[in-house]
Amino acid sequence: MAANGASCEQPQKRAGPKDKHNGKSTDLLLRDRRQKDKEERLSLVLWRRPVDTLHYFLLETLVKLKEWTFELWHRRGTVFVFLLLCFLFSITYSTDGSHQTYVQYLEKKFLWCAYWVGLGILSSVGLGTGLHTFLLYLGPHIASVTLAAYECGSIDFPEPPYPDQIICPKDGGLEDSISIFSIMSKVRLEACMWGAGTAIGELPPYFMARAARQSGTDPDDEDYEEFEEMLEQAEGAQDFVTRAKLGVQHMVQKVGFFGILACASIPNPLFDLAGITCGHFLVPFWTFFGATLIGKAIIKMHIQKLFVIITFSKHIVEQMVSLIGSVPTIGPSLQKPFSQYLEAQKNKLHHAGKSGPADENWLSWVFEKVVLVMVCYFVISIINSMAQSYAKRLQQLRHSEEKSK
Fold it and tell me: Which residues cross the membrane (predicted)?
């Protein structure tokens, strides 16, 4: 019996290292396969494989529409209440009466707020790959209001001043009566709505990571995989960006509400993974969203507003134009179009709709082309991303079929 027992124990001792070695080999094979799949998906872009990319994009669009349809059907009670409210509002909107004044005011405010909230969502959606709407829309809007306030000597021009044309009121005030705080109050609604939109854009990664942690399975998302790899490489990380991201993660995890608030309250490009971090560590929803909303829509936006308003104050702009002219060789040639552009904008403030082709110069032309290029790049990135998402579906289906055989 003893001999048999010894003979039974001996193979078990030999099997330990062997199983460990096989486990390592399996992990390496899985990692290599995932890396190859990832490289195959990343090659699916419009400038390399345009036909396949567009084909996969259309198929992914159909899949998403099907998923959303089933989701709406499961929530048909909520959808019914929403449609009922829309029906009642449409009746109120189309019925004549004294209430139309309030309806039109609410409609104007709602569309104005929805416009900026939508731009904010576009800015933060996709974990840093969204459209930079602050540089394209909100920043120029604050700058135009600032220049108009100093030129008109008043902030009583029509609301909203954008995208409607800003016209100085006939009974303009004095330039000395304009202050930074009065301009900040003029653009507060737009800035806060844009900041609220950026906070809303952080929610999808949060819910994705939270659901993945609670279910115990890896979600179908590249950004979550990047987050997991970052956590695995935490020890001995030498890269500054990696260490900075880990610092943000540790602050969010340990400090909680005030850590999230601190990270969201400053212009912080490393905040992209905050939603995944909070979802991964099961931070309560209102702790995460409340701190993010206060930080982005109130604190951070006032910092950004203040920076733009100071930068485009009248005396600062004049100093900038004079400094451009002092640049050797190319200074005078650059100073002239800047001066012409500012003069054209001032003329528009005093004369509604009387700006002619002479007011156009290469600065406005360049800005329009930059906006067009960035919007096109954003659309192309969405097509590529959805095509790669469908390719990942096919890869997972293939792997599941291989396991079942």
Answer: 77-95, 115-138, 251-267, 273-294, 306-327, 362-383
